[in-house]
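Lecture 7 notes: from sequence to structure.
We start with the chain below.
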Amino acid sequence: MSTRLKEKLEKIQQLLVELAEESARGIPIVVEGKKDVEALRGLGVNGAVLTVKTGGKSFAAALAEIEATSAAEVVLLLDFDRRGRQGTAHLKQELERAQIKVNLGFWRGLSALAGREIKCVESLTSYLATLQQKTA
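Predicted structure tokens for the same chain:
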């Protein structure tokens, strides 16, 4: 059991290292809210992180903000629950329509590894801490 958990922990940590590298290369990461931004900062992601659901921001305003970055590519990392999946699909469609490449690899990877145990990006920090305790 603990080898499986250890492998899961290592895979999640590797994904987060790769996410931080993408962010450092200037690729913006799109999350739902401020707590998601704080979680990513705590996990070593220091580049541009944009939110789609803060301060009563409309979906159209969030989309305009993403387009205003002039980024050719963005990483979508919305929550793993039903609303997050719907938001991801809708945002992906709109961004692709605006000719912005959408990277869902991190979202899919984290969702596959932790999607049953956590529902939101902000929970990643505590989830990793729990995995580290269980595998120590």
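Points to note: The first helix runs from residue 2 to 24. The chain has a mean pLDDT of 92.
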